[in-house]
Amino acid sequence: MKILGLSGNVKQPSRTASVVEAVVVAAASKLGLESRTIELFDAAPILFRALRSDQLDAAGRAIIDAVEAADVLVVGSPVYRASYAGALKHLFDLVDYRALTGKRVILAATGGTPLHGLMIEHQLRPLFGFFNALTLPTAIYATEIDFANYEITSPAVRERIERAVSELAQVLPVSNNAAADRAHGNRPAAVAASA
């Protein structure tokens, strides 16, 4: 299975990209997922060459194909004017409205104050409701004080990442959970009980 991180950052270095990457790494490591992260700092200039999906060139189509092919998305954005980044919205304007049905999505954001964290619930979660995706209950939100040199230093943010990854493990297909258990030396409960 594939997990794709999408970071709505339009500058580098980026606290948002750090959060998205931390979630992707934690999930890929724990659950044995193939992983990749796309930052809009790199992708937006390519995607803005098209206003509709039928105008995408090969590079833009490859980005949208990666989004549509992922089994799990980790989507993060800095809070801009009480919402997510416009470049991130443009990316999802190019995604087929049927492509994310049933996909699992972990939501994340960074902002200037704790109050900006409500953007996740009022802006990001409804976006994925439109796509009929399954957003996990725990979202990750961080402010500037949760970082040192763009690295997460907050135990609370790290704990939310772990909680979101645990929720993801519960909603992935059983075969993938069994593979993750074997990769970490755990035996499925039924096997352990019969041993």
TrEMBL record:
The keyword Oxidoreductase applies. Keywords: Flavoprotein, FMN, Oxidoreductase. Its EC number is 1.5.1.38. GO terms for molecular function: FMN reductase (NADPH) activity. Residues 1-143 form the NADPH-dependent FMN reductase-like domain. Belongs to the SsuE family. This is FMN reductase. It comes from Rhizobium pisi. The keyword DNA repair does not apply.
